[in-house]
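W.,

You were right to be curious about this one. When I first looked at the sequence I had no strong expectations either way, so I just let the prediction run and decided to look at it fresh. Below is the sequence, 173 residues in total, followed by the output.
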Amino acid sequence: RAVIDSRSRHRTMIPEEEYENGHILTSRSLKKLNDAGVGINLGAHGQLQGLGAHWELWMLQQGGMTNMEALRCATINGAVSLGMDEQLGSIEPGKLADLIVLDKNPLENIRNSEFVKYTMVNGRLYDAATLNEIGNYDRKRTKFYFEQPGSGNGYPYFMETNSFMRPTCCWKH
């Protein structure tokens, strides 16, 4: 709990003006840039890993991109900008097999991106709900570090010292 709490504290509400001028304006600007031929990539940061990518994907669609345009920003566009589109970013023979399998179609509703059934990494298939390897191998995953006994013992310390608060550039030098 300490690891997650200390890295995920954000305000839960955003003022409407900030939402419109930040989130929505940014989304619409990205749509205009995309229409002009500028390569737009998904680049979630600052949120919990895994969630931020979905939120940014949805944001692209909220700004006016079609679901397919938003999905391209999340897949092939990033590979192109890194010069790796011959190896990844789309499903083609000879490319690396790193992909997800969804239960629902994101072309019908972009929020269906969250219904991940399987994840394939380096050609090895994993059940998204359990993270057990399936397919060629049938292996249960080992425990994550935060599932180990005693992994959350630092939480009272974080709460007493507010050490979960990260300083910004101007905070108490």
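Here's what jumped out at me. The longest strand covers residues 116-121. And, maybe more interesting for your project: The mean pLDDT is 83.

Coffee later to discuss?

I.
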